[in-house]
Amino acid sequence: MQAQIVPIDSHHDEAMCHIIKTVGAEFGAIGNGFGPSDAEVLHMSQHYSVSDHSGYFVIEQNGVVLGGGGIAPFAGSTERCELRKVFLSPQARGLGMGRQLVAYCLQFAREMGYKHCYLDTLHTMSGAIALYEKLGFEHLPAPHASTEHNGCDVWMECQL
User: Fold this and answer.
1) Disulfide engineering: 146 pairs with which of 6, 75, 99, 136, CB 3.0-4.6 Å?
2) What InterPro entries does this protein's entry cite (predicted)?
3) DSSP letter at 151?
4) What mean pLDDT comes out for the span 15-42?
5) 21-44 b/e (C-beta count within 10 Å ≥ 16 → b)
6) Nearest 10 degrees: CA dihedral of 109, 90, 23, 3?
């Protein structure tokens, strides 16, 4: 069965929390200043809604959650959003699922009316960075002033 992308629901929360924390630790995103430490990770479904111009989506296959990613306003901006908490379990990598998920998120961002999409990540996530580059993200010399994750060392943005 082909993987499908669906909006996160409360029954996905536990699996996504596990994936975000496990994959975050795998790449050194541990502690304050990194997405896996954000309080929202415990209950992702409660923190994203279309009415807030945000959405978090999971990719699943045969009922198994393989990863997720989301879009939310960046620092209250109506034109700039942030690609947030894109994490894939090891068995989902290298199969095109990351590309499918990020493309879905970017299309959602366009539908919400955003003009730019920002992200921050770690240099250790080289596979993700290569994907972001292929999807049109360009490197920034420094983070935007309002970034929440001061532990990250790669900052990127694309025009939508």
Assistant:
1) 75
2) Acetyltransferase_Enz, Acyl_CoA_acyltransferase, GNAT_dom
3) T
4) 82
5) bebbeebebeeeebbbbbebbeeb
6) 30
- Among positive and negative, which fits the CA dihedral 126, 132, 135, 136? negative
CATH number for the segment(s) 4-159: 3.40.630.30
Structure tokens at 113: 């009316």
DSSP tag of 74: S
**How would residue 26 be classed by pLDDT, with cut points 50, 70 and 90?**
confident
Q: Report the first-to-last Cα separation within the chain, whole angstroms.
A: 31
Separation between Cα atoms, residue 82 and residue 64, nearest integer Å: 26
Confidence of residue 99 (pLDDT cuts 50, 70, 90): very high
